[in-house]
Amino acid sequence: MEEEPYFYHPLENIEDIDEFEAAVERVHLTKAVSEERPYTYWTIELYDQKNGIRGGGGLGVLAADTRRVAELNGVPFTLITPFYPSEAHQEIVDGQVRDMHVAVDYHNYGFRFIDNVFVKCCGNLCKLDVIEKRFKSTRIVSVTEPNFGELYSGMSGSDHRLYQEVSLGFGGYAALKLLGLKPAIMQLNEVATFFAALARLDELASNGMDFYEAVVYTRKHTLYTNHTLVQAAEADFSHEQFERFVYPNLKSPAVKKWIDDKFDDGHIKLSSVTIEIAELRSGVSKLHARVANYHDIAGNKVKFKAVTNGIDMETWVLPEIMSFYKKAGIIDATDYPMPNFAEKLDALDSDAIRNLKRVGREELNKVLAKRKDQNGKVLHFSEDDFVFDFKRRFVDYKRPEMPFREPARLRSILEPVGAHYILAGRIHTGDDRMTAKLKSVFETIAADDYLSTHVHYIADYDEELAYGLSVGSNASINIPIVGLEACGTSWEKDIANLVLLISTHDGGVADCSKNNYLNVSGNTEEEELEELYIRMNEAIQIWNNDFDLAYTIRQQLEAFLPVISGTRMLKDYLDYLFAM
What we know:
2 domains; single chain
């Protein structure tokens, strides 16, 4: 009989309140996950186009990957998220990136209607559809209604945003009860999911548990995962908003009093109360966990456990590359690196790399055949074309415009080998600063006869384009300002797909040494820009030398395959959460 993975070791369940005092003395959780007591994963954003839910960026992609990795490993796992009936897309019109909106219907994506639950807001009883989709050991549970709007509609402190978050928290928790599920753990991904833990606290306190014990119990079974060092806009709500949207859903006066005490000058930051309701806290890379600067109500700095993000390799890695990894004994059936994987990487010579990337280039061309660049041109690259890409959210700290600061220098790198540069990434609605920067990049490109035909912006960045670029590009640019990237996962997809990584030493990249990829560093932005141009030239030279190509790709994989593995990420979470 095959031995079960150690993280399924049965543990002592605690169900009765009478057993509570003994339980609170323990450091870790004391309930094994099971079908009735799943690992619950709460997220305001899911990026899973196959299932009709389009997120806004890395948080949503990670959520989808985490569920798929749990399924691969047979872990009972329930992901709770809103289903937004409107999706935001982007297009280029007259040289400007503009938003457009598309209606979506959950009936078209295999979701099953369960029943209705209700939340109370502004004196109204708001009816939410509870829908579910099951996948072996995992499931997606969503709440939705026709006026729910789209992801991140309105400002972070707006009434509508609070309504969505309250609906996810109180409505989602009620949905679990409809399905007969009791969370073994509640993982709160970012502060927008705070109200799920508040709903659990309220249920315990209103059903007879001593309030102090209810707080301790909730805290010990709640993990807060912070995903970003740069808050797009810190969630801040007024007491008056809580009176209309939150308090009507609370049954326990003690819970209301507990929340009241957290307001400062009539306002509350969700980060502060999320930290208070979760004893377990994690950051998404080693660097992130060290530098995250959050404090509790008493002013004490909060410590975060480092659990670096991983990816679902089955989704993001070219099937032919995955087949190579498994046949060569580099990774196992759960996409976890084998104990001797570094030795097995010797099988990955330059011929194998070039042949696999040739297949990846074909996949990229299939994706690009359905797209147009800023000039309205459909792109197609030969297997010999060298392609750089920048594919990630268009936010200031990621510096998408950086290579274009010296256009003549950029041209001098690209032109001798006929290289192309692809830009892809979403600009957040209302981000006038990044819209202006992209417009400036367009003007820089248009002013140069070579760049105008070899630098391409592809609008409406999504999973399909992200995959195509990962499998089909030669080198990827990842240059966030050091200290501002929490993790990032685009670079992980690049390394797994045999792409040369050009990056600053930030986020999850900093889990390993600077010597394991084409590092961009410097004491000033001018020094970093010079280093970036040097590394871009170096990438082209590496690709044209068989020994250097095999050596560099193997070096990247040896350092980062354990980091990339989504199974490693899930194992790290389970090790952190559950006592043996």
